[in-house]
Amino acid sequence: MAASAEPGYSPGFKKPPAMLRLKRKRLRRSExxxxxxxxxxxxxxxxxxxxxxxxxxxxxxxxxxxxAGTTLPRERDRRPSSPAAGSPSAAAxxxxxxxxxxxxxxxGRTLWGAVAGGAMGERGKDLPxxxxxxxxxxxxxxxxxxxxxxxTRLLFMSSRPFTWAEHLKAQEEAQGFAQHCRAxxxxxxxxxxxxxxxxxLRCAFQQSLIYWLHPSLPWLPLFxxxxxxxxxxxxxxxxxxxxxxxxxxxxxxxVSFTSLYNLLKAKLCPYFYVCTYQFxxxxxxxxxxxSDVTTALISPTTRGLREAMRNExxxxxxxLVEESKTRKQKNSEGNLETEVASSFExxxxxxxxxxxxxxxxxxxxxSWLEEMGVQDKVKKPDAISITLRKEKQEVQMDHxxxxxxxxxxxxxxxxxxxxxxxxxLVAVAGPQAGLPPTLLSPVAFRGGTMQTLKARxxxxxxxxxxxxxxxxxxxxxxPVMPHSLHAxxxxxxxxxxxxxxxxxxxxxxxxxxxxxxxxxSPALNKETTCEDLGACGLxxxxxxxxxxxPTLGKSSIRFLExxxxxxxxxx
Length: 571
Hints:
An eight-stranded antiparallel beta sheet has the order 6-7-5-4-3-8-2-9. It has a six-stranded antiparallel beta sheet with strand order 10-11-1-12-13-14, sandwiched between helices. Helix 6 crosses helix 7 (199-208) and helix 7 (199-208) runs antiparallel to helix 16 (482-495). By secondary structure, the chain is α+β, with helices and mostly antiparallel strands. Helices cover 32% and strands 15% of the residues. Among the domains are: 151-210 and 451-570, no CATH class; 238-319 and 397-449, no CATH class. It contains 18 helices and 14 strands. The chain has helices at 17-23, 34-37, 75-78, 103-109, 111-119, 170-181, 199-208, 229-232, 243-265, 303-311, 319-334, 336-351, 367-372, 383-396, 411-421, 482-495, 526-532, 540-546; strands spanning 151-158, 210-214, 271-275, 280-284, 295-299, 316-317, 405-408, 438-441, 449-452, 454-464, 467-480, 499-506, 559-563, 566-570. Mean pLDDT is 77; it is low at 30-45, 72-135 and 346-364.
């Protein structure tokens, strides 16, 4: 009783559950209630929670929680199956990489697990979306086909280190620049025993990384231009609101563009690219891609651009559309009954007000109605309806690979003048407003700036069965043009002793440049072509590859592997 009279004394301390209940750790909804209530008594079934377990958003297929009773798959069961075993398009990109049962196959399986974290770094968020690859790779060959698409990144992998590509000396770097400017041919042996000590190899590596660019604005990424607004927005562009400065930039750009075209006509430049914010143009000299005349490819195009070219008198063709029409015509001739049935369906859809594109007979006279005496009972379509129906099919292929336009011969000069004077070549609003198109060339030209691709080599651990092995990788970032790809693979053949693999990332709008345009000339002599273009600055073997007719279609090489000095690839 005396204790109760003391100040600050409360008899409630003998009953603390009210205070402890507030500090008691709350149970998760996914945990069984038996944890709090204790173990169930014998003979009673444990209670079952109705709330499902919440999925971990950061889990992958390998570390996701599994139901009770399921066993973990063995390592060999988790290995990606061969391309022939299933559709690789449903698998991860690193699973559809090297699948040839070699050391490079084990390297490819750990491409993103072991290399991406170190090689990509902050650029990992910009990785392209995985693409589907064919189920059957190509047969081994001594050379891979020419790939006219522009690559944004190359990732080479090998069991041998790439130390020879690291920390070039000042003299080696200067020698590489001099070899490029003087178009010096470098012929390396088939295999180099000590690549790190080979000065000739290191100088040739520096030489293969050089390209020429206009305009040169170091604070802006000038390639790629299509879809580049997100990367350019927020950066300084004083010309966007200054028309006088825009005119100066376009005047300088026109001089550089004309210089490149003159070099192309003189066969001192093999090819070059014009990259705008809407489309890309590839100019190729006569003798390349199996053509005996100068050609220009434009992709993607729109109906407005094609109409403007027609109004300027530029003769061009749509080879992929013509190829599709020819294929359909052959199929219809082979099966007459199918043709009759399809034409009957087209007639019904037109009577029902469908949107099917009309045939070429729609604009002919309707005199046959008068012969039947029903000209007053049938409503004739007006000229506007006929025109709209004809234009619909043309508009539907806008911004697609099928909209590829081909310009040949003297029409390329008309195209040059058209592009110089075209107002829509430069954006009038947005982050790229007032910025001239990007010119990319393998050789020097007036107003061009020498640039180098960024190269970096790292080492990583790759899982191989129950152990780990060292894997080396070499990353090349930048606008990789066809000649650079061929030169780099030639160097790796000698330095890595004919065993390496590579993952290639393509600028998708340029993949259609690999389509067979039907311009191959049977009378074209490859030896004569190499002699005529001998002064263009490319290696003779590179010219021999680029002079072949394209065989990749509308796709490009995504994966390349060399084993025993023989190439296999996937596109």
